[in-house]
Each structure stands twice: as structure tokens, then as C-alpha cells.
UniProtKB/TrEMBL annotation:
Protein name, per record: Bacteriophage phiJL001 Gp84 C-terminal domain-containing protein
Residues in Bacteriophage phiJL001 Gp84 C-terminal domain copies: 185-267
Origin organism lineage: Bacteria, Pseudomonadati, Pseudomonadota, Alphaproteobacteria, Rhodobacterales
Length: 286
């Protein structure tokens, strides 16, 4: 352990949601431990880590160069690094068995500029700062297709794979075949998953639909990170507006509806007694 001050380096292990593990180090040679190869020369570095006692959130940031060999802009825009798990070690590069964990957490907001990236790192206690618990309201809080919802989105009635007929606004507006088997607005609040082309892997929610004769136009909430081209394949997934009627008539899934459709709304709660006429306590008009 002698000489650690001049032989120490930092190593990062980044685990994406798809299970891919990437290792980086600020040393000038590759390091290896815990079955992970930490690559040098990636240009990645981290700022000072702010740590505190109790449940305060540890935080820092990392920055580096974007490259296909390390963190590529394409993968970042496709969301593959959203909430990726991160561990940072301080390690003796002469003997990696001597190391200590400096930080555990996840990636937060990632910004890109000039071929480089900067990422916010969030500590393990960061989720404790968020409001938890169940909200009781008329709308269903479940995510369409998750374990609470139970709808199988792989059924043909809830999805379609088509080729793009036209692309506008960088991919924020798409034109697809008429999809006569699907009712109007069937995919509103659903998703478009790009299967081929420059935007492959990206998933973008649908804001609204338009019927255009022999075509259907989809307006997305935002363009994918890379503009798709005419002819690219996409998967359209049905959407849900969280209402009881939609759950009943579109998905036949009322037994799994998680909302409370008969909860009084804000207008009902603000109703005041009538100040004129006969107020018998009975239904209005009697």
C-alpha cells in the first residue's frame, strides 16, 4: 500500500439497463478487477464527490469525450444510459486488490456539446427525496403493459409493424399506411419504436393522430435523437389515456383497473348549497 498517493487512480463501472457493463479509468493503462476491464484513454473524468452523513444525497458529475468505442451520442440519445447504475473506485493501479468504493449511484441528466458529454451522478439515497405512495384518483396509475396492468401488448390487436411513408420535422411527424384494422387515435398515448435506420432502438410517445386518406399521420412528443428515413421499419404500440372507459372497451381489462372512477372531482368538492328556492334536502329540482 506504500506509495498509494502516487499510484492511485479512479475506475468507473457503468451498468446500462440492458445489462451491458462498461469500465473506464483515468489511468494511462487499462485496469482489470471484478471481472471488468476498465479502459484507459476514454477521456472520462469525475469531479469531487460531495458526501454527507445521514440520508443526505451524495452527488458529483462525470465528463468525457463521446466516441463509438466508449459512450456514443447515438446510445445516449436512444436512452440506453438513462438511470444506468454506476460505481466509482479509488484503486492502486500497481495492485488493484487495494481499492475502495468512493461512490455508488446512477446517472442523472446527461448533456452533450462539442463532441463531449457531462453527466450528473446521483447517490443511492437520491430516490428517498422523491414523494412516494399511491395517489387515489379517477385515472389509473399503472403503466400500460406492466405487471399491475396485465395487458399483453404483444397481441396483434395492440401493435403494428409498418414502414414509414414520409418523415417531417426530424422525425417528430411520421406518415404510415392507413392501418384500417385500428380505430382512429388507437395509438395516441402509445409509443413508436424504431426498428431500423438511424433511429433504431429509440422509443418515442405519440401525441396525436391524423387521418390523411390512404395514410395516417402520427405527431410525436419529440423527434428521436437521429432522424429516421422513409422506408424505415417502426412498431406502433397502442396507447391508453388511463380512463375506466378506455380500460373497459379498448382493452377489456376492467378487473385490473387501478383507478377510482367514482371519486368526486374538484368541481364537485367546491359545490355550495343553493341560496334561493326550496331547499328540501332532496335531489335538485324536487
Amino acid at each position: 500500500m506504500s506509495g498509494l498517493t502516487t499510484t492511485r487512480a479512479r475506475a468507473w463501472a457503468l451498468t446500462r439497463s440492458d445489462g451491458t457493463v462498461l469500465g473506464f479509468t483515468d489511468h494511462d493503462r487499462d485496469l482489470s478487477f471484478d471481472g471488468i476491464s476498465f479502459r484507459a484513454g476514454t477521456g472520462m473524468s469525475a469531479g469531487a464527490i460531495v458526501q454527507g452523513t445521514g440520508l443526505s444525497v451524495d452527488n458529483t458529475e462525470a465528463s468525457g469525450a463521446l466516441s463509438d468505442a466508449a459512450l456514443s451520442e447515438r446510445d445516449i440519445l436512444a436512452g440506453r444510459y438513462d438511470n444506468a447504475a454506476l460505481t466509482i473506485w479509488e484503486v492502486d493501479w500497481q495492485d488493484p486488490a487495494w481499492r475502495r468504493v468512493l461512490f455508488r449511484g446512477s446517472l442523472g441528466e446527461i448533456t452533450r456539446a462539442g463532441g463531449a458529454f457531462r453527466a450528473e451522478l446521483r447517490g443511492l439515497t437520491e430516490p428517498l427525496s422523491k414523494t412516494g405512495g399511491r395517489v387515489f384518483g379517477a385515472a389509473c396509475p399503472a403503466v400500460l403493459g406492466d405487471a399491475q396492468c396485465g395487458v399483453d401488448l404483444d397481441q396483434p390487436v395492440f401493435r403494428a409493424e409498418v414502414a414509414l411513408l414520409a418523415v417531417d420535422e426530424g422525425g417528430a411527424v411520421l406518415e404510415v399506411p392507413p392501418l384500417g384494422d385500428f380505430a382512429a387515435d388507437w395509438f395516441v398515448d402509445g409509443n413508436v419504436v424504431f426498428l431500423t435506420g438511424a433511429a433504431e432502438g429509440a422509443t418515442v410517445p405519440v401525441r396525436r393522430e391524423e387521418a390523411l386518406g390512404d395514410k395516417r399521420r402520427l405527431h410525436l412528443w419529440q423527434a428521436p435523437g437521429f432522424a429516421p428515413d422513409v422506408g424505415d421499419s417502426v412498431r406502433l404500440q397502442a396507447g391508453c389515456d388511463k380512463r375506466f372507459a378506455t380500460c373497459r372497451f379498448k382493452f377489456a381489462n376492467t378487473e385490473n383497473f387501478r383507478g377510482f372512477p367514482h371519486v368526486p372531482d374538484d368541481d364537485w368538492l367546491q359545490v355550495t348549497p343553493r341560496a334561493d328556492g326550496d331547499n328540501t334536502g332532496g335531489p335538485r329540482g324536487r
